[in-house]
Amino acid sequence: MQKQAILLGSDAIANGVKLCRPAVISAYPITPQTHIIETLSEMVDRGELESQYIKVESEMSAIAAVLGSVSAGSRSFTASSSQGLAMMHEVLHWFAGARLPLVLVNANRALGAPWNIWSDQSDSFSQRDTGWLQIYCETSQEALDTIIIAYKASEQLMLPIMVMIDGFILSHTMERLLIPDQQLVDDYLPAYQAPYRLDPDDPLTFGAAAQPDLFYELKKTFSETMSEAPTVLKNCEADFRQAFARAYSPVMRCPEGDEKSDTAIICCGAMTGTARVAVADLNKRGLSTDLLKIRLLRPFPKDELCAVCRDKKRIIVLNRACSYGVGGTLSQEVRAALYHLEQRPLVNDVMISLGGKEVFPETIAAVIENREELSSVDCNWLK
């Protein structure tokens, strides 16, 4: 059974976390993530969630606290945003390197300076090389579902997973969605059994120093596991579809697009919903366009993207994060993935939004309508 509800995106995530039964939660409030941990703290206080809620003085302490709890064998959760995620940076490396499972939700928000509380994806994109899997969600339903999928994949891979929602756009808006029954989730996601943990009766060494050759071998093994991660994630998504009748994949073709078009728009996150409206209207007007959503950023789904872009002549990538001096961060990932195709499509790099700059269907439609004017070399910043 699944019950219908109308929830804020933040509350949808809190309900997803609750269904996964974490034994430990630790987080520090930061806009626009705060509602997630407020709701979880209320659930714990009311006795609806049997979890130890650790109050801390900073995001660094929050991620360090769950590093300890997961090391001791407990399923755990944390969340952050923007400067808070940046403050976690050092421990993000330690978490992945220790091969420990965790789900962290990041409510995407611009990094300063200048000071800005609105949404873009620069905070999480800047952490893409820390060794965490990264999944970007379009809707609150997708975010709730992804929490459940992420715990299953994380505990199979023994790697942490970061789940992204666009701040305010999802976190602070309400959506009708389905909340799975607890027993269904328990059947899909059994209790976590740590393969190794801190135990005074069976002492192990955690985080010991590694000589160069051993360090290299450990990182090689880490890289091999990351290469296997898309397959593990797809299997977890397939199991989820069978149990809950909702389907997800690393790269998703949106039904509003025209699969036969030689032009495709690529984006990720909540902006996909806006792009759906624009592309559907353009196709009605005879401007044939395909629409692809990148759901998995790390590891980047190269094979899946090549398969759906093999016959395209032009790819227009809509970015909400910038690698200054190079261009749109997502565009770099797409170009690298498609480089080895014999017939490479032209990739247009478009910086469409930073710091909460509004994106309307008309904005995206205008980019497509004026595609011949886009630079094929430089990043295209909209006026």
Topology, element by element:
Elements: E1 2-8, H1 9-19, E2 24-27, H2 34-45, E3 52-55, H3 59-71, E4 76-80, H4 82-87, H5 89-97, E5 103-108, H6 122-125, E6 133-136, H7 140-157, E7 161-166, E8 174-180, H8 182-188, H9 212-244, E9 251-253, E10 263-267, H10 271-284, E11 290-294, E12 296-298, H11 302-309, E13 314-319, E14 322-323, E15 327-328, H12 329-338, E16 346-351, H13 361-369, E17 380-381
Parallel strand pairs: 2-3, 2-4, 4-5, 5-7, 6-7, 10-11, 10-13, 13-16, 16-17
Antiparallel strand pairs: 1-8, 6-12, 9-11, 14-15
Features:
seven-stranded mixed β-sheet; Rossmann fold; 17 strands; 2 domains; 383 residues; six-stranded mixed β-sheet; alpha/beta
Distance between the termini: 49 Å
Question: In the CATH scheme, what's the topology name of the largest domain?
Answer: Rossmann fold
- Unreliable sequence segments: none
Question: How many domains?
Answer: 2
How would the global form be characterised?
globular
Instruction: Give the mean pLDDT.
Output: 96
Specify the CATH class of the largest domain: Alpha Beta
Total number of helical segments? 13
Approximately how much beta-strand content do the residues carry? Answer: 15-25%
Q: Please give the order of strands in the largest beta sheet.
A: 3-2-4-5-7-6-12
CA radius of gyration is 21 Å
Task: Tell me about this structure.
- With 383 residues, this protein is α/β, with parallel strands linked by helices.
- It folds into 2 domains: 2-244, Rossmann fold; 251-381, Rossmann fold (3-Layer(aba) Sandwich), CATH 3.40.50.920.
- 40% of the residues lie in helices and 20% in strands.
- The protein is built from 13 helices and 17 strands.
- The longest helix is centred in the middle third of the chain and has 33 residues, at 212-244.
- It starts with a strand and ends with a strand.
